[in-house]
Amino acid sequence: MAYLDQMFTLSALHHRKDKENCSLVAIASLKLAIKLFEPRTMNMDDMLKLGTTLGCNFSHLAVVEMERDLLWTLSWNIFPPTAFCLAYHMIRMFPREVVRTSRYIMQELVKYMTELAVCT
Asked: What is the pTM (predicted TM-score) of this model?
């Protein structure tokens, strides 16, 4: 959802609000998010079927081009690290002797502290 929002904010697409364009950006954003965050990918045919359920007919090329436009519009800033992400990786580097419950407590404290930092 963040990619879709950023694409409409940063590009001129928010002036062209036809259903076809909105659906194409949504499908390309979803495809990109799945590639980055899901362990398994969704093949292009399934993405196109999803587009047809939205009432639009896209080609493979249209989705790929919109994904490329999305990447260039966002200046390839699609996976910014967060404070919690850094802390998670630091905690993972602790020796194995550190008890699992201790790691969990540290992760929860880090999560709480990063949320608190954002609120102020």
From this structure: 0.56
